Amino acid sequence: MACSKETLINHGVKICPSPQTQGRGLFTTRSFKIGDTIIEEQPLFSCQFSWNYAYGYSACDFCMRPLETAEENVRRLTANADIILPHPECDETDKSSHIICSQCAVTYCSIECKDHAWNQYHKTLCCNMLGGNPNHPLEKLNEAWKKMHYPPETSTIMLLARILATFIQRIDREELKCQLMSLCHHTANEEDTIAHKLLGSEFESQLELLRDLSIKALGRPETDEFLTPQGFRSLIALIGRNGQGIGTSAFSVWVRKVSENDIDPTTDSLIDTIYQEMEKESGDFLNNEGSALFAVQSACNHSCEPNSISSFPFSNHTVALVASKDLQEGEEIFISYLDECVLSRSRHSRRKFLEENYLFHCNCSRCQLEVDEPDMTSDDEESMEDD
Ligand SMILES: [Zn+2]
Ligand SMILES: [Zn+2]
Ligand SMILES: [Zn+2]
């Protein structure tokens, strides 16, 4: 696809065929120093996860910026209403700019986000009922999804609903289609595997149920081609494979600001205590979580020895690709699709995880270097893989 490749060159990157993967990859068009931001990018689509929203993790409905103050965030996650957080000047949450959709009561961090959402998809998705309506077709779709996909969440059907609604509202649909199609090419078999992974063992019947509910909610001439059995399966595979996880929280922003400004060394022990309390009460679920589709960042291939990282420096859905090593002009940019824990495991474990979840055999520099390692996993790793 020729979509906007030319403009990318001006930003210091371009999308080209990758020798490592036989697919496409993201390459530098100039050198970067370690710590440099290579690109910043707004997603084509983003959406908070359905359970995350249902459990009261409060984020802007468009950009996922936290809507709670850091202190409210801490009080909710520790279930302790008496905690007082010092240094309120490090709290970025500005409630005076928050704005509610007058028809369905979803909240935005700013009038800009409300307008963006309305003009892109919310005019179609706004359910016209204050407080929600369980009989609304979109609500039925969301509920069906939640029953199929319990936490920890990796995707949401509401991301797919935003894509369909955007097709209904957009005038230049071909350009949008071109952007979506350029995200990833899969064979029908690969799409089945990804959709299966997302929907579990009852995948055929669940896929049909979701498709039926999607037709009831968003079936229009503009969305016809995405709501055929094959079109719908491709779209499910697209969000399952390309969705980049996003996590934001008001408290983590506060922590970052306090440490950046080196304000008060005594806050370190307070922060440790709060994290312990939050873990005790809320486990791993500390962030507003969701996923997003990025046109450029999604071209970045995986390496077990990455030279860049994806981060969310503005506490919203804007991704920044940051160099974690010095990069030469023309070098391929790699991120890690694995979290720190899996990344630290053996070659065999890493490759097994990537094959199962991303359908490719990793042939990165580190995997090549470790090629003589025995194809064994320790008991510890086996038990983690069984989770
Ligand atoms: Zn926002
Ligand atoms: Zn609304
Ligand atoms: Zn590798």
TrEMBL record:
Family annotation (InterPro entries): SET_dom, SET_dom_sf, Znf_MYND
SMART domains, A to Z: SET (SM00317)
Gene Ontology BP term (one): negative regulation of gene expression, epigenetic
Name of the protein in its database record: SET and MYND domain-containing 5 protein
Source organism of this protein record: Daphnia magna
SUPFAM superfamilies the record matches: HIT/MYND zinc finger-like, SET domain
GO molecular function: histone H4K20 methyltransferase activity; zinc ion binding
Pfam families recorded: SET, zf-MYND
